[in-house]
Amino acid sequence: MTSHSRSPRLRPLLLTTALALALAAATGCGTTPAPDRPAAGRSSSAGPAPDRAELEARASAAQLVADHVWVTESAGYALARQSVGVLGDDGFGSVYTEPEGGQIQLAVERLPHADADCTDGPAAGSDREPVVTCERDGEQWYRATESGHAYAREQGDLVITVSGEREKVDRATLRSGGGAAPPADDHELDQVLPSAEEASGRQPVERGDLPPEGDGAPNNEVGASG
């Protein structure tokens, strides 16, 4: 397909292999939202919004940019809060699940604005599947391989992508999820963001067995702490 319109160059379907594995591992310990926080969707709370400064602090503690936290909504799917995390430098990723095992992956990233190349195959040296479908669908772009598919759209300098496995998530569900993905309001940020305690628990643990000089290889001598 040849097109002269500007569109995002869609990411590898199902995000990247590393991200998909990381998010799958995160949801493996349970996909039910925390009992004190409802599943994220469009906010329906009539109560006062949480303190914005606190939300910004929680986002920062989780290495997230609050304005890059988006949510989506699709019938039967609920946010797996364990999956919430940063993509790249300042992007955002999350997974929505349903009881039958379907997963919708949401990604919000700064990606180059480029003409869509609907005839490209896997990148050199990668394990990406060849694209079998790439087409404009309303305000979004739809792209599919034999096993996965995704919808993407541009919003300012961000590209918002929803993706899933073709056998478990149909195209209509992805399309509605992509079209229903807005920036999180303050109530939704409160639902999505890790608490300050949860965020601190995600920080890397400083190891005590690394030598102060040299190549930083662990000290495996007897008596060194692990």
UniProtKB/TrEMBL annotation:
Keywords: Signal. Residues 30-50 have a biased composition (Low complexity). Residues 1-24 form the signal peptide. Coiled coil: none annotated. Residues 30-55, 173-226 are annotated as: Disordered. It comes from the Bacteria. This is Membrane lipoprotein. The lineage of its organism: Bacteria, Bacillati, Actinomycetota, Actinomycetes, Kitasatosporales.
